[in-house]
Amino acid sequence: MAKVRHSRLQARKWSTVTLVLSMLFMLSVVLLMLLGLGIFSLPINNDDSAPNDLTSYRRMASERGKGLGKRGEQWTEVLSWEPRAFIYHNFLSKEECEYLINLAKPHMVKSTVVDSKTGKSKDSRVRTSSGMFLRRGQDKIIRDIENRIADYSFIPVEHGEGLQVLHYEVGQKYDAHFDYFLDEFNTKNGGQRMATMLMYLSDVEEGGETIFPAAKGNISAVPWWNELSECGKQGLAVKPKMGDALLFWSMRPDATLDPSSLHGLLPFFSL
Ligand SMILES: *[C@@H]1O[C@H](CO)[C@@H](O)[C@H](O)[C@H]1NC(C)=O
Q1: Which residues form the Fe2OG dioxygenase domain (predicted)?
Q2: What is the Å distance from ligand 1's center to 84 Cα?
């Protein structure tokens, strides 16, 4: 008898526990439904500048690097996978191109190349242009451009070098070379160069193509094949167009050096 009473008591206790649990369960389901329908929201970051709000992040990213002037229609073209190279059309506005040219013009000196033994700059016959370096984050417009490069390359702006403005006269060129370093001086001081973004600041009449002589794939499949100079048809070539940018990677995704990133700048001619 005592035994029976005991178990009946326990059964009542258990049913109370079950009732409480199922009520809690129902409450969570209702809360989840409200959350799901957006009727109710958890009070996380309800201030104006919610850092976890994706819309505000997207707005920040698009306002960042808005830059000078109005850019034409922007679209990306995959140029090649070996080397990894992409063309960003209308990366710079006409005003930004002119701004960079005018900023650099009074400071142009004959270009040098990095000596592969000492890592120091040296004069060279393989590169016959003139150029100058801008300081990183030099002014608002430069910062905007640098941020844009960071956004497109997925490499933080702090990892970038200062922009270099180059000027090629008729007949000047830069023979095929790698952008990655093979010397200890540079790889230890600042690390390996992973990628390069070339931005074309003016249009050219003839020649002046950036060429990848070691690119894999069908080099004659580019839509501009018929517009290329005879030299330009010796490799995968990109015709310079004001405002366009060419991003290519000197390293593969596994951080090994990519010899197919060999590239040069062909001499251009006036018609
Ligand atoms: C390369 O591309 C061009 C243009 O699309 C095509 O006519 C040609 O047959 C291709 N060559 C090869 C070897 O696939």
Answers
A1: 159-271
A2: 20
**Same-domain check for residues 93 and 20:** no
What residue's CA is closest to ligand 1, atom 5? 221
- The pLDDT mean for the chain works out to 85
Q: What residues make up the domain containing 208?
A: 74-269
How confident is the model over 160-186, as pLDDT tens digits? Answer: 999 999 998 888 888 899 999 988 887
pLDDT at residue 26 is higher than 50: yes
Q: At residue 257, does pLDDT exceed 60?
A: yes
Mutate to test the pocket of ligand 1, among 80, 216, 219, 220 (most ligand atoms within 8 A of CB): 220
Residue nearest to atom 4 of ligand 1 (CA): 221
Please tell me whether residues 10 and 97 are part of one structural domain: no
Q: How many structural domains is the chain composed of? A: 2
For the chain, the distance separating the N- and C-terminal CA atoms, rounded to the nearest angstrom, is 114
Q: Are 88 and 59 in contact (CB under 8 A)?
A: no
Q: Are 27 and 127 part of one and the same domain?
A: no
Backbone torsion region of residue 143, taken as left when φ is above 0, otherwise alpha when ψ lies between -120 and 50, otherwise beta: alpha
What is the β-pairing status of strands 236-238 and 75-81? unpaired
Residue 42 has pLDDT above 80, yes or no: no
**pLDDT, average across residues 225-238:** 94
